[in-house]
Amino acid sequence: MKNNLAIAQLDPRTVILWSLVYAFFLAAQKSFLPLLASLFIVLFYIVLTPFSCKEILKKLKPVNFFLLFFWLIIPFSLQGKALFSLGKYAYTLAGVKFCLLITLKANLLMLIFICLLLSLSPSQLASGLQSLKISEKLVYLFLLAYRYLFLLKEEKDKLLRSLKIRGFKPKTNLFTYKTYAYLLGLILLKAYERGDRVHKALVLRGFQGKFPSLYSPKFTQKDLYFSLFSGLNFLLLLYLQLT
Amino acid sequence: MKPLVSLKNISFGYKREKPLLQEINLQLFPQEKIGLIGPNGAGKTTLAFLITGLIQPWQGEIEILGQVCKEEKDFQKIRSKIGFVFQNADDQLIFPTVLEDVAFGPLNQGLKPEQALEKAKKTLKQLNIERLASRNTFNLSGGEKKIVSIATVLSMEPQMLILDEPTVGLDENSRDKLIEILNNLELAYLIISHDYDFLARTTDKQLILKDKKIIYDPSVVLHKHEHAHPLGYVYHTHK
Questions:
Q1: Across the interface, do B54 and A204 touch by the CB < 8 Å criterion?
Q2: Which CATH number applies to B5-215?
Q3: CA-CA to A224 of 20 to 30 Å: which in A85, A96, A239, B21?
Q4: From B94, B96, B105, residue closest to A206, measured CB to CB
Q5: Which of B52, B90, B109 minimises the CB distance to A204?
Q6: Which segments of chain A are extended strands (E)?
Q7: What is the per-residue burial (b if ≥16 Cβ within 10 Å, else e) of A211-228?
């Protein structure tokens, strides 16, 4: 880790709880001032993550691409002072404001999750969730999904390649849809079989429905400082919102 | 000497009226190294699943470490004594890092996290792969995955190993490494494989599974044979 204040060194429970607090707070905002203030605070957190600015921007790309559609559609559908109009449809100021709010919120939420949750390793996150008494099944689901999504993708790539080799070109016709349906079915079937084998392997190593955790989270002084810092920030945000 | 595993008159099939294995008898003694050869679909892996109780036989008796095993409960007690290495290492490696994966078995055996970690590190050292400890399990090469999956069962300190097609997909180098590791193990093991040369170098006795039966013919001699590859005329050695 870059510095000894890094988020990865904290108790995962602290990190998960604070990311939840921020997430709920941000999601409930309807005005700009607390959001802008939050943006300022998030910048502090970025320093504590192992990611570079470039990496973070890359992670934000998909969200903003999705938001682009909001910008294209919503301002036309709200009423208010028109900025310009296409035929009889007006692009309204109220719509722009609304979109700006959504964009700011979405990016902030992503930033908080990137800074806090993504800084933890999957096993840290899992052990944190486990000790917060989240349902064991959900925790396994998370751990196994992390491990096996990659393999599912590989399976899909393999099948797609085998289609391509045999000259398959996707078109909008029944044949294409049928082929994709078979492909999906095959992936599901293979995933099921793999699941069966993985379960066998787990049972052979003494698995009895519980994943014992190798690292038990500990609340240390670092967590206290981090919580104090986050708490102060949060109070400031609340104050801004209430006045 | 008492056998580690003893199968008596085991019959099994996945479909009714279509037995895959019929009245199989098999014994594995401590320190014994057995190879099991047979055509595709002959039921080699099925036999291994029967030994570990993942499936139940139609008839017959399975005795492991002197205990007759009938139900899932009986098998749960002895499973950690049998290390099963799957054909596809990806089915076996589950956790984000190698060290966690190797520590999983010992944790299930009831060890404390520190002890399990200690044991995992020891196992990695034994197999000379300490450098992989913090690597992601899915970023390893095929050969590394195979050796790590062996580590994940060795850390449970089993009394025997079952390896299902361990050489599939391994290159010459990884294969040699695997042979070296197996030859250095002081454990009984059963290797399922098609690779005659590999079996000749790692096992003392080879059984053939054919037509629902196990055949042992000591007169069958596994041998290495001539082979061709580019640059064959350049001086080189095969181990």
A1: yes
A2: 3.40.50.300
A3: A239
A4: B105
A5: B52
A6: 82-86, 89-92
A7: bbbbbebeeeebbeebbe
Instruction: Return phi, psi of residue B238, to 5°.
Output: -110, 135
**ipTM, interface predicted TM-score of the complex:** 0.74
Residues 133 to 172 of B: which have CB under 8 A from any A CB? 137-138, 152-153, 156
All residues at 6 or more sequence positions from B62 whose CB lies less than 8 Å from its CB, including other chains: B5, B6, B7, B8, B10, B50, B51, B53, B68, B69, B70
Q: Is the pLDDT of residue B168 over 50?
A: yes
- Joined together, the tokens standing for residue A81 give 């002072």
Give the span between the Cα atoms of A151 and B138, in whole angstroms.
9
Of B79, B82, B91, the CB nearest to A194: B91
Q: Judging by DSSP bridges, how do beta strands B160-164 and B82-85 pair with one another?
A: parallel
Residue A1 has pLDDT above 60, yes or no: no
pLDDT tens profile A122-164: 888 888 888 888 888 888 888 888 878 887 888 888 888 888 8
Q: Are A205 and B153 a contacting pair at CB < 8 A? A: yes
- Over pLDDT 70: what percentage of chain B? 94
Tell me the residue type at B97. T
CB contact under 8 A, B108 and A198: no
Spell B98-111 as b/e; 16+ CB within 10 A means b.
bbbbbbbbbbbbeb
* Domain ranges (residues) in chain B: 5-215
The Cα of A142 is separated from the nearest Cα of chain B by a number of Å equal to 11
Q: How confident is the model at residue A2 (pLDDT cuts 50, 70, 90)?
A: very low
d(CA B50, CA B44): 10
Report residue B10: phi and psi, to 5°. Answer: -80, 130
Whether A5 shows a pLDDT value over 60: the answer reads no
B104:A143 CB<8 A: no
